[in-house]
Amino acid sequence: MKFILDNWMLIAVAIASGAMLLWPLIQGAATAGLDPAAAVQLINREKGVVIDVCDPTEFAAGHVGGAKNIPLADLESKLGNAVKNKALPLILVCQTGARSGRAVAVAKKLGYEKAQNLAGGLVGWKAANLPVEKG
User: Using CA atoms, how far apart are residues 126 and 129, in angstroms rounded to an integer?
Assistant: First the structure.
């Protein structure tokens, strides 16, 4: 007990550094999703549909080729008209993957069980050197 009381500062530093080492693992679990290579395979092999949940101005600045733009605020009301076949895989995309993570929950609530988030969003897509359309 005397050791703990005498070295409380060292123990605090050890706990803080351990937490900092574990943080990326915790963060990665929260933002888990489909990596860009797996998304391309879904698009090509299973006719996966890409839905971009960004605002129209962000969508016009750059998006995954062939993506349909449905802003997150309108997703619940417009997804059924945009993708009628609920058995098709949905790949939901935004700039970083945060909004599309919330969009996956909305899509699954609507019955799209194969809805997935593109990990890293459009930033991850670009980092994988995959093509981006503008306009």
Answer: 5
Provide the pLDDT for residue 60.
94
| Sequence-ordered strand ranges (E) for 12-99 | 49-52, 63-64, 68-69, 90-93
Name which of 43, 26, 36, 24 is nearest 89 in CA terms. 43
Burial category of 49 from C-beta neighbours within 10 Å (exposed 0-12, middle 13-18, buried 19 and up): buried
Question: Distance between CA atoms of 85 and 99, rounded to whole angstroms?
Answer: 23
Q: Using the 8-state DSSP alphabet, how is residue 51 labeled?
A: E
Residues of the chain with pLDDT under 50: 30
Distance CA 27, CA 25 (A): 5
Spatial neighbors of 66 by CB under 8 A, at least 6 apart, are 43, 50, 133
pTM confidence score: 0.75
pLDDT tens readout for residues 35-71 = 899 999 999 999 999 999 999 999 999 999 999 999 9
* Structure-token pair, residue 6: 């005498």
pLDDT of residue 98: 87
| Whole-number Å distance between alpha carbons of 56 and 84 | 22
